[in-house]
Please model this.
Amino acid sequence: MDCLFCGIIEGKIPSDKLYEDDGILIFKDIAPEAPFHALAILKGAPHLESVASLAQFPERAGDVGRLFAVMAEKQAEWGLDGGFRVVANCGRDARQSVSHLHFHILGKRELSLSLS
Ligand code: 5GP
Ligand code: ZN
Model:
């Protein structure tokens, strides 16, 4: 499987890591849309393509929950006390461009609710 984010997990592609443990990696987005823009992903098999993949692999939902708990634990350290947004693009209509389940974490500026 040729997946950009699996390549980042494996260290084949460099990334600016903010947090890593056995099951989770959080790293800076290469093209930030806000002063703070990170991507949070799950490691390990099976590789999930998107939120919709949790229908096939509901047993991974707990890992997603833990990922959110890590975000909550780290947000103050990342300077996000003023608030932040978590976004998951899923599939074509949402213009998901990397088919490895990921959550954008955006903050350090006021965000409008533009959905274009
Ligand atoms: P999507 O559009 O799939 O929701 O988001 C994919 C994100 O991955 C984009 O925000 C894009 O900037 C980011 N991205 C694409 N390639 C790389 C890369 O090689 N390294 C990092 N750190 N981020 C990337
Ligand atoms: Zn992958």
In short: Helices lie at 4-9, 61-74. Residues 7 and 13 are 5 Å apart (CA to CA). The chain has a mean pLDDT of 96. Residues 61-74 form the longest helix (14 residues).
